[in-house]
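Reviewer 2 asked us to include a model.

Predict the structure of this chain.
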Amino acid sequence: MKHLFLFPLFFLFLVSTLVLAAGEGTYGNETYGNFSYGVSSSASSSFSNSSVTTTANTSTIINATQGASSPNMTLEMITNSDTQGAVTLVKYDSQPPQVSTNTFASPLNKYVDIVVDDSIKNQLNYSIIKMYYTDAELSAANLQESTLRLSRWNGTDWVKFDPPTGGVDADNNFVWANTSSFSTWGIFGTTVPAPSGGGGTTSSSSSSGGGGSLPGAEENLYQTKPAPNPAPIPAPAPAPAIPAPATTPKPAVNVPAPTTPAAAPVAVPTGFAAFTGAVISGITKPSGIAAVVVSILVLTGLYFGYRRIYKKQ
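Predicted model (structure tokens):
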């Protein structure tokens, strides 16, 4: 009778497990579905929002940076249509049991599982993950800040997100990636090389690197802050040209054109004056001179002819 009573309970447990396991990926050491139902003992904290609403082609940001036990990350999602569902973020301070060791980089020991309902995941266009770190964590892991990258566990290997789909913002202490897939993510980098003279390791220096642009699923949505280029040294200014001595132009001298005085009006002679004027005018002409000579000769001939005739009488 007891076995018959336990059978329905076992059946309900089995059905509930199958329904909750409808999602993809892992959640701690368990299997997750549309809702989280447990956190692995190796997880350090979790953040869950069971009712996240997205608007088509609009950024929806889940901020999980508040509180000492928060995952200290943000998740920005852009969906193709309006939708609603649950989002859970599970933080690990050491390598979670469901993944293998990264073979190409050293861990910062910051991992997160991103669990998203199918209702959102199936409408996802792209998302941007930002995981924050502190200078103390960077120093403890002995990693070069400029080499930090987010890597995603694809079920078999770690996949690193280099520019243009991932990078580090050293000014604001976060590593980012542009993705359309959710899984387990971790921050990895290259260790600080030991000084050539020995004497241990040195703390990493803060420098921007690997920023690049975030393509929207490959568009520029976020621009990290690369180190500014040094200002170019300006070329020396050329020596000022010595101007030629200014010459004072000579004033133009305007020579007035000679003016011909207006002739006074000449009164027209009349009577005897007119007669003598006409005679004088005639005499001054060449033909007049000849006429005078002829006249004198004629008069002289008449005079002597008259005297001869007069003397004969």
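Residues 154 and 222 are 24 Å apart (CA to CA). Residues 1-39, 200-231, 260-268 have pLDDT under 50 and may be disordered. We have added this to the supplementary material.
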